[in-house]
Amino acid sequence: MRRRRFLQGLAGATLALPALELFGRPEARAQTSPPRLLVYYLPNGRRPEWWVPSSNVNGLIFPAESSALQPYADRALSLVGLDNTAATASPGAAHAMGTATVMTGTAMPDLNGLKNNVSLDQLVAQAHGSDTRFRSLQWSAGEPGPCDVGGSSCAYTQSVSWAGPSQPLIPTIDPSAAFDRLFNGNTDGLSGPEAEVRKRSLGSVLDHVRDDARDLESRLGVDDRARLEEYFTALRELEKRLGDAGPTCEVPESGPGGALDYPSRVQAFHELIRFALSCDQTRVLSFMIEFGLSGRSHDFIDAAGGHHALSHYGSTAQYERLRRLERWHSEQVAHLLSLLSSPDEDGHSLLDETLVLVMPSMGEGSSHNHARNCPLLFGGGASFRTDGRQIVFDGADRLANLHVTLLEAYGIEGSFGLDGARFGDDGDAVISGILS
Amino acid sequence: MRSGQALVQVSNNATPDAGTVPALLPPVRMIRTTGRGLLCGLALAACVGTIGEAPPDLEAAGDPPPEQPQMPLHRLNRLEYDNTVRDLLGTGLQPAQAFPPDGESAGFDNIAEALQLTPTLLDQYYTAARTVVDDALDDVPAFGAQFGRDAFTTPAGYAVGSLWALSGAPITVTFEAPGQDLYFVYIRLGASQIGAAPAPQWQLELDGVPVETYPIPGTAAALATHTHALQLEMGSHTLRFIPTNYVNEPVANNANNILVASIEVASETEQPGPGRERVFICEPDDSDGCPTEILHAFARRAWRRPLSAEEEVALGSLYTQLTTDGETTEAAIRLGLRAIMVSPKFLYRARTLDDDERDGRLDPFTLASRLSYFLWSSTPDQRLYDAANAGELSTPEGLEAAVGWMLADEKAAGLRDGFAEQWLALRLLEQASPSPEVYPDFDDAVRDSMKAASKQFFADFVSGDQPVANMLDPDFAYLDDRLARHYGLDPVGSETMTRIDDAPRRGLLSLGGWLTAASHAEHSSPIKRGLWVSDAILCEPVPPPPPGLAIEPIVLGDDGTVREALERHRDDPTCASCHALLDVLGMGFERFDGTGRMRPEADLDARGELPDGTTFEGAVALAELIEREAFVGCLTQKLFTYGLGRTVEGFDAPIIEDIASRATKEGFSLADLLVAIVTSPSFRMAPPRTEGDRP
């Protein structure tokens, strides 16, 4: 409805928009601004026989285990066998290094402390995220579990998004907390004149907090003052969130219920992703269905046994359980795609304006195969050739070049690798066939 | 070189690069001597393999002694945040459970360098401040009773996360009303409805008399709250909720169900909240200056040090600004409390340039915070502040006295919840998922009992005076009936943890908690167990697999024995250097299955082997082989790491060695060990200021 108005408005008339719009897309942005970015992370790798579609002139045909994705095959681009050189070059904590590098392309020199790099989604957030209330959001339905070997920091398995070399953006894991953050206004839930007073008061509170923080800063040593910078950055984001008018769409009455079980949390986060994107609260999201090295037992689909252990199956029974597990993952991705692809009156959907990058932590999990990662791209609108094709690399190109390609698509110039590469350690070329 | 770098990882580099000599190597040599002693403490004639080899002696005469590492800004972690708001405000809420997970390093989640503050987290701190302040200060019902899932489980129903699905069976709650009053019953619930089944309904019965029948609101993903208002007399009352139209037709795919999260009963009569008395030190109505006094008193406690004149003025101005703009007295005070709790002075422990560091000792309030977060995982209390104020923490005797009464305080549970839970792999135990097919006996009750047994075991050493080295071979163990049954032992006659003298399984190495955590879903894991023992007991963490390692996929159907599978590790030279030690250490525990039970098979291969060929079998045998000083030294190192919030460095090495030596010779209890740690220079002395800091 609003899109039609926009076209009519080209004649020069000023449009008066209704105060509340139901899940509308932002005006005038549908065609001209770059698509939103959703990174959807899957842990413990994917078995290629269940994940990689076959391709012919008619399009992509997904294997039975990921047949749930078939309805979206004509909006997909399958990339087969990209080499995550950064993970291979990192110390052998495979899940930590896989998860940490799939969006940063930067090898860790050792496992002491945190030595990563800024991730692609954060580069997009820095370039395009300043208009929205949240520059970016990071969510996960997972529960923190054992971390990888060698003393590697748990942050490596628990984040795919990094704001800087030692700044993992560890996801929110509670859907209620995520809901509150999205829709909790800046008036403590008050309304009317009390709300106006409270808005001013909260501003005074934050002013006081900022001055207080400056006072502390002036009394710290040089190194600690540098450390406190993270606090000031966070405070600025908080002020921004509380300063804005709030969501410009109908706020759902209540958020996710009390403690949900795992599959319900996954679906609750899918709904929240849809809200966040359609209400234009952010343009950049990353979602981890579970953390790297996940040992979750998927009893609810008769796939008992830790996921990680199953990915290193040693028997036919375990292989079958892994099959059910990976099938369930495909169904979850499909569920999210179904939420994003429901059309409005003009037949347009969120998926037209959002690039969904489904990124496994590695290729085949049983051999920790970083060299043959098979991500899937969905949607993203006209900029991306997500039209049912497949590009087979078989290790001939680097995963970091996928990120270079995305930098290109998002119009982000510059070199972001620690040694001057365009991205990561060795991302230096756009992969042909991905962009329109 | 960054001061945060862990020494043991530097020293464990299997292929030290001769070209780069880190400046930190000389102190490394000291730890390594201890390290070789640890491994050689396994009664070996000679050590084999690259682990344990001392690097070349690079400490020339005249090298300056290593400096005390810095004390960086230290953010509160989740456990510390929850305990702190509990002690500051009296709230029972635990908002940090919804925070993102804490960064970890060196096996603990309270290491300063690993704790970051992201915008998401500050957002959550901001929201949490409001939630806990309101929870502490809102009036509460004079009578309240809460019933969660455990209160209404019935054989017919089943759990869905923390919800309970009734499946047609009624649930009953009983409570004792203290007086005649109006009582509100709040039920959090949802309905599920599939196919042609009708929307579920239930009937409420009060003391046997039907009250009303109504349809169930809400869904599992969006629970609703239904409220009943009941006028009740003093005495016992029973509420029964009876589903009236349960349908379960799996073939036709028609079903409905009722899911209950909680039932709460609250009297209409209210009383002040749990925090009011401790926060409202005066009555705002009585004097104009009272609100500011309240904020000052709270800030002193929340920021863990006396206030400066500027801070006092700023808080007073904030209050005045808020009331001038139209907030009520109560609201303005609460907003002030929230401001105090969002300040970095609350969220971080900081050493400032204004600190009173006379004679090179840490400022007494900085030291008090360090002490309380070490032993309580929480903020100092008034007694500890008074001790700091009076200068009592400046002497070893004063510190020893403080440790004494702090360990006797119930807040010392924080040491179990923080240190013991991590050292004894109990957090990993929470994530362990033993296969229900292979281990049908293992359930959450066993898991909880294992956790309690490990923590009680540790607590016994905290409060007792037996030598801490006895952890390896004590004469007691903790069991309850459930755990005893799981282990195949005689019942102990108690549902709660009981100390059993001369129990059949005793000691750290037999605790089911870490044994289960260090297992796979379907069987034990010698590698994980070897890893745990080498890290937690011997302080010999093993480096990760080298980069570029190509793991061969396992061929389906190729079982072999566990030992044969592990032989592959030892045959491959890339793997052998680490796995030669790990696998065989772990093999010695093979008599414990994946859930810590003893395997009865007579021909079980549970022969552990040490690099020199010495064999042992079982936890008891290994415990005898471990040099006591090596174990005590490792425990000391772990406590140092946890208590200081940083990895141990060259500066600490001789201190740890000395403590370990004395502790072993003189039979230190765990309390004695803690005293030795907090009176050590590492803990109580102020690190030298770095260049660029104002004097």
Question: Could you outline the blueprint of secondary structure elements for this entry?
Answer:
The complex is a heterodimer of chains A (436) and B (695).
Chain A: H1 2-9, E1 36-42, H2 48-51, E2 54-56, E3 59-61, E4 76-80, H3 85-89, H4 94-101, H5 120-128, E5 137-140, H6 155-158, E6 162-164, E7 167-168, H7 175-183, H8 192-218, H9 222-243, H10 262-278, E8 284-288, H11 307-311, H12 316-340, E9 354-360, E10 376-379, E11 389-392, H13 399-409
Parallel strand pairs in A: 1-8, 1-9, 4-11, 5-8
Antiparallel strand pairs in A: 2-3, 4-10, 6-7, 9-10
Helix pairs in contact in A: 7-10, 8-9, 10-12
Chain B: H1 7-11, H2 25-40, E1 74-75, H3 78-89, H4 119-137, E2 140-141, E3 144-147, E4 158-160, E5 163-165, E6 171-177, E7 181-194, E8 201-206, E9 209-215, E10 224-232, E11 235-243, E12 248-249, E13 254-267, E14 270-271, H5 276-279, H6 290-302, H7 309-324, H8 329-342, H9 344-347, E15 348-349, H10 364-375, H11 382-389, H12 396-408, H13 413-423, H14 426-431, H15 444-463, E16 476-479, H16 481-487, E17 498-501, H17 512-517, H18 526-537, H19 562-571, H20 573-587, E18 607-609, E19 615-617, H21 618-625, H22 628-644, H23 653-665, H24 670-678, H25 681-684
Antiparallel strand pairs in B: 1-15, 2-14, 3-13, 4-5, 5-13, 6-11, 7-10, 7-13, 8-9, 8-11, 12-13, 16-17, 18-19
Helix pairs in contact in B: 4-8, 6-7, 6-8, 7-8, 10-11, 12-24, 13-15, 18-20, 19-20, 22-23, 22-24
